[in-house]
Amino acid sequence: MAAASVGLVLAAGAAACGPEDNDAKASGGGDSTPHKGGTLTVLNANPTQDFDPARLYTSGGGNVPSLVFRTLTTRNRENGAAGAEVVPDLATDTGRPNKDATVWTYTLKKGLTYEDGTAITSADIKYGIERSFAPELSGGAPYLRDWLVGAADYQGPYKDKKGLSAIETPDERTIVFHLNKPEGEFPYLATQTQFTPVPKAKDTGTKYEEHPVSSGPYKVVSNQNDGERLVLERNTHWSAATDAERKAYPDKIDVRSGLDSSVINQRLSASQGADAAAVTTDTNLGPAELAKVSGDKELAARVGTGHFGYTNYIAFNPGVKPFDNPTVRQAISYAIDRSSVVNAAGGSALAEPATTFLPNQKSFGYQPYDLFPAGKAGNAAKARELLKEAGYANGLTVTLTHSNAKDFETSPEIATAVQDALKKAGITVKLQGLEENDYSDTIHDVKTEPGFFLAHWGADWPSGGPFLAPIFDGRQIVKDGANFNTGLLNDKSVNAEIDAINKLTDLDAAAKRWGALDKRIGEQALTVPLFHPVYKRLYGKDIKNVVISDWTGVLDISQVAVK
User: What CATH number does the domain containing 77 carry?
Assistant: First the structure.
């Protein structure tokens, strides 16, 4: 999930622990034991649009979508770091690779059925993937087009009845994937909703989102205004015997979206009526709201704390002077005052200072390093020394591009904190604020990318691969489209190491290599990591069994009970 482009999650959609302010397994008033029954209300700002597994861009199966759509694999539904692991879902295991990880084989569990009681087959998963290639159903993660043999120009089953030869279904329970290159992280990809089974006979094309056929514990009974009001009820043909991950406690789930964030937090705080059994999956507490909540013991006990693989950073374009000079980039790195940046992001409760590009989670391969130690308040003296070495003894003037969106990430507050810190080192920073769409278009176009700007990135799954490769793999530089390799790095040795790590199916071994590569790239000072966000979200007083994993950083609806 490229947070820089889709503003996650979903995540953001997206470090290292679960809830800090509550007992995650026994939260809520009265009897702490979770029971089946009742209605869970979800209060969100953003509607769950395009509720079709082909069109959703989700991390680990998403939250609301994962109640309806099961996939070959899914995320482990546990708190903190344990929740960053991939586990089987429809499949019996996380996949069986051949020797070089270019062929992956899965076997479906026995007894899998849809909401109408008909059997789920491997052919349904193959068809579900194929329809995600149809232009009219675009929006999902792009990996399959790149990874599957012969898939680059495939236009989906509506135009090409032959389907993808790279996906084989030798029998009703076996599915085999043939890849262009080794991909040890294929089990992570298999968590994406594109791996949801879709019965061909029930496919209604672009109208499928109105009533997708459920393979999960809930089915869609109403979808109003493209996900603005989504009502789910139990799928009586779902069996917990085939699904170790989803608890499915509530009888009904009522998702209401399009609400103002302040209204959501007010309603959750008051916890009146149906709102007592309500949660949000996309609305954080802001600095002012958090201060109010922290002063109220009862409210503070109803705050879930989550971390997601996400980094806010300064990006340099080495093609623009003076940022073509590594010494200038190093000087700026030394000058940064992370304490003031964290304060601008809402304070230490909502942001953690970062000196590594990878998030500080084990699954990413995090290895602590601080190559240009600025201390808590910036090292202006060291920065001035380097500027003199670079030929700027009298300082220099630069322009910092940022977004005008009030997101506490790439917004004016963060830009001003950077401006103030660099001033102490003799660097005059002029601020260029752009409206959100203009900002995104400008920084992601090679032709218009500024020399110095605020950026952020979130991972599609908790690993160093989808974090480092899009930003630093030179083969992913896009000259005529959305480009995320902001430093325009095309280092053959870095590219080769990315390929070597991708061959590893031992994900722990791969994580260590990603961490080492992060430090190696960091030495080039192409970015200045600033902070990792922390998510603080209220939930209603009758909510029980709060689980927040490091995969998504948000409350897992599949675990929640309301009684």
Answer: 3.40.190.10
- Residue 355, C-beta contacts closer than 8 angstroms, at least 6 positions apart: 338, 368, 369, 370, 371, 373, 529
Q: Which domain holds residue 337?
A: 310-535
For the beta carbon of residue 103, count every other beta carbon within 10 angstroms.
18
| DSSP for 364-417, written as a single string | GT-----SS--TTT--HHHHHHHHHHTT-TT-EEEEEEEE-SSSSSSSHHHHHH
Q: What is the pTM of this model?
A: 0.90
Q: Report the domain count for the chain.
A: 2
pLDDT for 347-390, tens place per residue? 999 999 999 999 999 999 999 999 999 998 999 999 999 999 99
Q: Considering the domain boundaries, does residue 127 fall inside one? A: yes
Q: CB-based contacts of 517: which residues, under 8 Å, 6+ apart?
A: 464, 468, 494, 497, 498, 501
Q: How far apart are CA 371 and CA 459, in angstroms?
A: 23
β-pair type (103-107, 96-97) = antiparallel
Find the length of the chain.
563
Q: For residue range 281-336, list pLDDT tens digits in order.
A: 999 998 889 999 989 999 999 999 999 999 999 999 999 999 999 999 999 999 99
